Amino acid sequence: MRKNTTKTAVALFSLAVFAVAMDFVFIKSSKVTENPIDFSFGSTALRLPIPVKLKHLNPQRVIDSVEKGLLSTIYSRLIKVDANFKIQPDALESWSYDSSKKKYFFKLRNNVHFHSGKTLTAQDVIYSIHQWARHDSLDSNLLLIIKGVADYQAGSSKTIVGISNKSDDIIEIELTKWSDRFILDLASPRFCLYPKNFGNVAEDEYFLKPDGTGPYKIDERVSEITTLTRSENFYFGTPHISTIKIFYLSDQEAVQNYNNENIDNLIFYQIDGDINLRKFRDSVDNVIRSYKTMILVINDSSDPELSNLKIRTKITKRLSPERLVEACFKGSIVATNLIPKGLAGSQSSPSKQELAETGNETQQGKTIFQNEKTIYIEKTSLSPCIQKELNTQLANSGIAVKEGPFEELYKKLKANRLAMWV
């Protein structure tokens, strides 16, 4: 996300640390008319404007946070980190290790398919790791702990000797020294899975229309419009939205189209200027009503104390999505597919040690803040239940939950006085 302290943080999802009952969806938007490109896509397409022009979709090269965030729609990884900072298998069915031999053993799911229909195999994973570990690949330093990566990067070896496959679905990785954190490092959004030899096409050609294993596949890229269609064979289930149209709008174009009701979301934007408050509120309300989505957003620019990752982790550890869903969202379920880490500037996850430390402090009932902080929620029919449940969960933490009308909360946001809100 582009940093500008004078801009309003309209991208509500960018600093989320807590979410409940959310499916793999974005906010719906509608026809764009102020842009010279005709965006008459039809009523079934989700229209997703972004503030950058998509150049390529190579995870080892992308730098902009918007492009980086979009990777998880097309690709998948071996490991992922969920909203509660827990490490979860993604394309893996399971993993095990032998710390005395400095080895990890990975077993692949048997139902992971590339968009071309090809089944993911151990050979594809080994090829992918070699791409991640190239000396010119971003985040390749995270893999130096694998035996043979240093020689591979130096050019003295054409392969990484510490990686091997024991069968079509079993991969063994040997480290130079033991590290518990290695699993967490594999959750980097850059470590995406590719078919061996890029499916026998040139690398540059592959990344124009990559054959990934994610929930959406690239249907076409025409006139700066990228069309994604859902993968019917995605191993975690078929996404609800059939088609996503991604296109570029400048900040000024985005505001103009938004206020003219040509688009319904600005989730990738930080806006300098006034926007249609009622429409903004209604679009958020529509998402909550349609998909029962709730997110706690922490805006650390309005409170420097919240820039401390350990503090944010403590807050997260106090909250129970399960209890909130049970109390206030009857018939809903806790999210399993969340907006990916890295989308529009989400922040880094805590280490295993930090989680352990904050977990112990939480269990001991220690106060997070000596001077009371406030989480604001908009006044709606559900707000009394949400306020009561969150206050119960955050009891003795030094955090109070208060409600207020949307217009008042937005004024606080514009004045950079809204540090935490739901």
* Order of adjacent strands in the largest pleated sheet: 2-11-10-9
Q: Report Rg.
A: 22 Å
**Average pLDDT rating:** 76
Structural class: alpha+beta
The H/E string reads: EEHEEEEHHEEHHEEEHHEHHHEHEHE
Largest sheet descriptor = 4 strands, mixed
Number of helices: 12
| Spatial gap, N to C terminus | 21 Å
Number of distinct beta strands: 15
Contiguous low-pLDDT stretches (5 residues minimum) are 1-37, 284-292, 336-352, 354-364
Q: What is the molecular shape?
A: globular
Instruction: Bin the strand percentage.
Output: 15-25%
**Helix percentage:** 25-40%
Keywords summarizing the entry:
422 residues; alpha+beta; four-stranded mixed sheet; four-stranded antiparallel sheet; 12 helices; globular; disordered N terminus
If you had to describe this structure to a student in words, what would you say it looks like?
By secondary structure, the protein is α+β, with helices and mostly antiparallel strands. It has helices at 65-74, 122-132, 149-154, 182-185, 203-206, 251-259, 277-291, 309-318, 321-328, 352-363, 383-393, 406-414; strands at 16-20, 45-50, 79-81, 87-89, 92-98, 103-108, 163-167, 170-174, 216-222, 225-230, 243-248, 294-298, 373-378, 399-404, 420-421. The chain has a four-stranded mixed beta sheet with strand order 2-11-10-9, with helices on one face. A four-stranded antiparallel beta sheet has the order 5-6-8-7, with helices on one face. A hairpin with a 5-residue loop joins strand 3 (79-81) and strand 4 (87-89). The two termini are 21 Å apart.
